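Retro notes (design track)

What went well: tokenization of the new backbones is finally stable.
What didn't: we kept losing track of which sequence belonged to which structure.
Fix going forward: every design gets posted as structure first, then sequence, in one message. First example under the new rule, 120 residues:
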């Protein structure tokens, strides 16, 4: 397994799984993706990379001393506890309609995600 996550993209399998999860979760919770689709793309890619590396969709927007231990603890696995309990998404992936950064989309294509993440 390649451990260089800075330049390696997520596998297609996990990217599709995280894209599908994100769309379904947004619809189920009445939340919306960020008005900037680049934010949505990068977060979904980060979740998929963590799923590749750790076997769990650990929040990609936080720093961890030990990612493996954090993934096992599950607190920050998406949807994280703050999102499930209070609809607070630090990553700006799932935003309530009253959030200034909420868009009107609950869907994003693989092509949109790859178009953004291929730039890194």
């Amino acid at each position: 397994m390649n451990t260089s996550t800075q330049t390696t993209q997520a596998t297609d399998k996990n990217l599709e799984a995280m894209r599908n999860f994100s769309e379904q979760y947004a619809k189920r919770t009445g939340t919306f993706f960020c008005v900037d689709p680049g934010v949505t793309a990068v977060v979904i890619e980060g979740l998929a990379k963590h799923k590749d590396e750790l076997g769990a969709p650990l929040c990609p927007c936080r720093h961890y001393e030990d990612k493996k231990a954090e993934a096992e603890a599950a607190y920050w696995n998406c949807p994280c506890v703050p999102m499930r309990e209070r609809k607070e998404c630090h990553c700006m992936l799932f935003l309530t309609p009253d959030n200034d950064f909420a868009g009107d989309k609950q869907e994003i294509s693989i092509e949109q995600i790859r178009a953004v993440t291929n730039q890194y």
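Added context from the reviewer: The longest helix spans residues 12-29.
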